[in-house]
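Marked as duplicate of an earlier ticket. Keeping the data here for the record.
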Amino acid sequence: FSSRRRHTRYWRDWSSDVCSSDLPENMRPVFLATRVRNKGYSKLVKDQHIKFSLTQNNITLQGIGFNMAQLFPLVDSGELLDVVFTIEENEYNGNISLQLKVLDVKPHSA
């Protein structure tokens, strides 16, 4: 979860670090949120993906982690998590919302 440069950013009161490196300008920023909890509604989708419901500081956000089924026991454990993600638009049944595209999940390290 480290990068050469780290800048603190806030997205809807989620404390996160922007992991930036010398990537082309059209690349999406990658964020790190620490001390995040599963809200209790995360679930496996199609036996391969995790549909996340994550909370931090009384803010809950939804996300998707593709091909991350092996990490579901960690997500479902109730432990504090560190989550790496990008932000993307999700369109479902004509509704558009922002969601986290989860790239990695690890147990929180103090």
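See parent ticket for discussion. The beta strands are 5-11, 14-20, 30-38, 43-45, 49-56, 59-65, 81-92, 95-107.
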